[in-house]
Amino acid sequence: MAAALPGSDPRLACPIAPVVDIVFSRWTTPILWVLHTYGRQRFVELERRITRITPKVLTQRLRQLERDGLVVRTYHAEVPPRVEYEISELGRSLAPLFAHLADWSTENLPRVEQARAAYDAGS
After folding, report:
1. How far is residue 62's CA from residue 88's CA, in Å, rounded to a whole number?
2. What is the C-alpha end-to-end distance of the chain, expressed in Å?
3. CATH of segment(s) 12-91
4. pTM metric for this prediction
5. Starting at the edge strand that comes first in sequence, how are the strands of the sheet with 82-87 ordered?
Protein backbone atom coordinates (compact mmCIF):
# COMPACT_ATOMS: atom_id res chain seq x y z
CA MET A 1 0.00 0.00 0.00
CA ALA A 2 1.45 3.37 -1.02
CA ALA A 3 1.99 6.09 1.56
CA ALA A 4 -0.23 9.15 1.33
CA LEU A 5 1.34 12.09 -0.40
CA PRO A 6 2.15 15.08 1.80
CA GLY A 7 -0.72 17.53 1.59
CA SER A 8 -3.13 14.93 0.20
CA ASP A 9 -5.29 15.09 3.34
CA PRO A 10 -7.39 18.29 3.08
CA ARG A 11 -7.57 18.47 6.89
CA LEU A 12 -3.79 18.91 6.95
CA ALA A 13 -3.82 21.48 4.16
CA CYS A 14 -6.61 23.48 5.80
CA PRO A 15 -7.22 22.87 9.51
CA ILE A 16 -10.71 24.41 9.38
CA ALA A 17 -11.93 22.06 6.62
CA PRO A 18 -13.58 19.62 9.07
CA VAL A 19 -15.42 22.51 10.75
CA VAL A 20 -16.62 23.82 7.41
CA ASP A 21 -17.83 20.32 6.50
CA ILE A 22 -19.82 20.10 9.76
CA VAL A 23 -21.22 23.61 10.05
CA PHE A 24 -21.65 24.78 6.49
CA SER A 25 -23.28 21.85 4.78
CA ARG A 26 -26.40 22.68 2.77
CA TRP A 27 -29.04 22.83 5.53
CA THR A 28 -27.01 22.90 8.74
CA THR A 29 -26.59 26.65 8.93
CA PRO A 30 -30.31 27.48 8.51
CA ILE A 31 -31.25 24.85 11.13
CA LEU A 32 -28.75 26.15 13.66
CA TRP A 33 -29.74 29.75 12.89
CA VAL A 34 -33.43 29.03 13.51
CA LEU A 35 -32.74 27.14 16.72
CA HIS A 36 -30.43 29.88 17.96
CA THR A 37 -32.84 32.66 17.02
CA TYR A 38 -36.18 31.11 18.06
CA GLY A 39 -35.14 28.61 20.72
CA ARG A 40 -36.59 25.14 21.17
CA GLN A 41 -38.66 24.01 18.17
CA ARG A 42 -40.78 21.07 17.20
CA PHE A 43 -40.13 19.39 13.86
CA VAL A 44 -43.13 21.02 12.17
CA GLU A 45 -42.02 24.46 13.39
CA LEU A 46 -38.59 23.93 11.86
CA GLU A 47 -40.24 22.88 8.58
CA ARG A 48 -42.30 26.08 8.54
CA ARG A 49 -39.34 28.34 9.28
CA ILE A 50 -36.94 26.66 6.85
CA THR A 51 -38.77 26.74 3.57
CA ARG A 52 -37.87 24.38 0.73
CA ILE A 53 -36.34 21.70 2.98
CA THR A 54 -37.96 18.30 2.64
CA PRO A 55 -38.99 16.36 5.76
CA LYS A 56 -36.53 13.60 4.83
CA VAL A 57 -33.59 16.00 4.58
CA LEU A 58 -34.60 17.84 7.75
CA THR A 59 -34.70 14.51 9.61
CA GLN A 60 -31.27 13.54 8.25
CA ARG A 61 -29.69 16.88 9.13
CA LEU A 62 -31.20 16.93 12.63
CA ARG A 63 -29.86 13.42 13.28
CA GLN A 64 -26.40 14.46 12.08
CA LEU A 65 -26.46 17.63 14.18
CA GLU A 66 -27.51 15.59 17.21
CA ARG A 67 -24.69 13.13 16.51
CA ASP A 68 -22.22 16.02 16.22
CA GLY A 69 -23.42 17.43 19.55
CA LEU A 70 -24.74 20.68 18.07
CA VAL A 71 -28.44 19.94 18.65
CA VAL A 72 -30.28 18.32 21.54
CA ARG A 73 -33.36 16.21 20.84
CA THR A 74 -35.90 15.84 23.63
CA TYR A 75 -38.58 13.16 23.42
CA HIS A 76 -41.70 13.67 25.55
CA ALA A 77 -43.57 10.41 26.15
CA GLU A 78 -47.12 11.72 25.97
CA VAL A 79 -50.08 11.14 23.70
CA PRO A 80 -49.38 12.09 21.00
CA PRO A 81 -45.60 11.90 21.49
CA ARG A 82 -43.79 15.22 21.23
CA VAL A 83 -40.21 15.77 20.07
CA GLU A 84 -38.40 19.07 20.42
CA TYR A 85 -35.02 20.23 19.17
CA GLU A 86 -32.79 22.92 20.60
CA ILE A 87 -29.31 24.15 19.99
CA SER A 88 -26.76 22.74 22.44
CA GLU A 89 -24.10 24.68 24.33
CA LEU A 90 -21.62 23.47 21.72
CA GLY A 91 -23.92 24.75 18.97
CA ARG A 92 -24.34 28.08 20.78
CA SER A 93 -20.57 28.45 20.85
CA LEU A 94 -20.81 29.02 17.07
CA ALA A 95 -22.83 32.23 17.59
CA PRO A 96 -19.80 34.57 17.39
CA LEU A 97 -18.73 32.90 14.15
CA PHE A 98 -22.21 33.35 12.67
CA ALA A 99 -22.28 36.98 13.88
CA HIS A 100 -18.97 37.68 12.12
CA LEU A 101 -20.23 36.02 8.95
CA ALA A 102 -23.46 38.06 9.10
CA ASP A 103 -21.40 41.25 9.44
CA TRP A 104 -19.13 40.17 6.58
CA SER A 105 -22.18 39.42 4.47
CA THR A 106 -23.71 42.83 5.08
CA GLU A 107 -20.44 44.62 4.33
CA ASN A 108 -19.20 42.55 1.40
CA LEU A 109 -22.01 40.80 -0.51
CA PRO A 110 -22.72 43.93 -2.58
CA ARG A 111 -19.04 43.89 -3.64
CA VAL A 112 -19.30 40.18 -4.48
CA GLU A 113 -22.36 40.89 -6.64
CA GLN A 114 -20.49 43.73 -8.38
CA ALA A 115 -17.52 41.44 -9.03
CA ARG A 116 -19.82 38.76 -10.46
CA ALA A 117 -21.58 41.26 -12.70
CA ALA A 118 -18.24 42.60 -13.95
CA TYR A 119 -16.93 39.07 -14.57
CA ASP A 120 -20.12 38.00 -16.37
CA ALA A 121 -20.06 41.16 -18.52
CA GLY A 122 -16.52 40.35 -19.60
CA SER A 123 -17.32 36.74 -20.51
Report:
1. 12
2. 46
3. 1.10.10.10
4. 0.79
5. 41-42, 82-87, 71-76
DSSP run (H or E) holding 36: helix 28-38
Q: Closest Cα to residue 49, out of 27, 64, 66?
A: 27
Question: SS3 of 75, please?
Answer: strand
Rounded CA-CA distance 28/66 in Å is: 11
Rounded CA gap, 51 and 2, in Å?
47
pLDDT at 46 over 60: yes
Q: Rounded to 5 degrees, what are φ and ψ at 83?
A: -125, 135
CB-based contact 88:69 (threshold 8 Å)? yes
Task: Write down the pLDDT at residue 5.
Answer: 54
pLDDT tens profile 71-104: 999 999 999 999 999 999 999 999 998 899 999 9
